[in-house]
Amino acid sequence: MPTRARKQPKPAPRRATKTPAKAKARPTKTAKAAKASRAKKPAKPPASGGKVAFPFFAIEEGRLKEVMAYLAAGGDINACPSGALRPLLSEAAAHGNLKLVKELLAQGADPNGLGATGESPLQEAAEFGLDEIVKVLLEHGAQASYRDPGGETALHNAARCCRVAGKREWRPLPPPKKARVIKLLIDAGVDPRIEENGGRTAWFFAVDCENREGLELLPEDVPSSKVAGGDTSPEDEQLEQAHYERRMTSFLSRTVKALKAARNDPGKLATAITKYLEEGDAIGCSPSELWDYFGISTPSLPAKARFTKQEEERAIKLFAQLTKERYRG
Known about the structure:
The protein is mostly helical. It has helices at residues 29-40, 56-60, 64-72, 88-94, 98-106, 121-127, 131-139, 154-159, 175-187, 202-208, 212-215, 224-228, 234-261, 266-283, 287-296, 301-304, 309-326. It has 2 domains: 53-221, Ankyrin repeat-containing domain (Serine Threonine Protein Phosphatase 5, Tetratricopeptide repeat, Alpha Horseshoe); 251-326, no CATH class. The chain is built from 17 helices and no strands. Helix 13 (234-261) runs antiparallel to helix 14 and helix 15 (287-296) runs antiparallel to helix 17. It starts with 28 loop residues before the first helix and ends with a helix. The model is unreliable at 38-50, 163-172 and 222-230 (pLDDT under 50).
């Protein structure tokens, strides 16, 4: 029988061998030095007609190097470019960046450079209660009595409520900060009786914003129609209301202090209550209003003076007795 030819086994496929990748050449010390030198070179100023982006966020976040890079790249230190409401110095002042304010002044920034709305760097700092920046600006020649297009001075800005520097949400400043700025500006020669275009002085804004510490430094405003003997305007009526509110606030505050001092002395307590009734009469309060302020309102005046519940009850009882004697008949 014929024999069958045996099938030859197929040769096994050859596995592809990977050639080792060439190792990347490490940069030499010379290459590293060249790279470092290139990084240290300042940015070149833009060609004629080029624009440099105004460093809004760098100022807001206090990134001094970026602001200096903007100037090195050709940015104008005193310009108020398109899209910006304030020049660099005003922006730095409004955001409370004392270090940047000092650096910009050293670089030649104009302490009286105005923004698009006509406000000066001093006004920006005053409105935010930044007494240290106000002091630095005054030392570098800022015009303390400058009036913006609305007729306001930095004193008007200092007297009214404002938001905390660098914050987007509105929050009233602690009154002592405003008072320090008011004192700095008055000492620098700002006349507190200067009226803005609406006829209001800084005192009016301080009353409106309950800036009690500032009010102690400002002379009371007087409606011009009262001085001239003319008819009372709506503005004058508003001003008279502000006068009344200021007198009442001061009156009640004095009474609370007197009650605190007389808390443990019945004789002094009677004297404090008698004075409260006398001053209330002078202001024009009725007996019912004085009773309401003293013992009915929450908290009562003795409670504000930190009397205990029993002390408060005794004080109210004494007040009722003295009131009855004073207004008998």
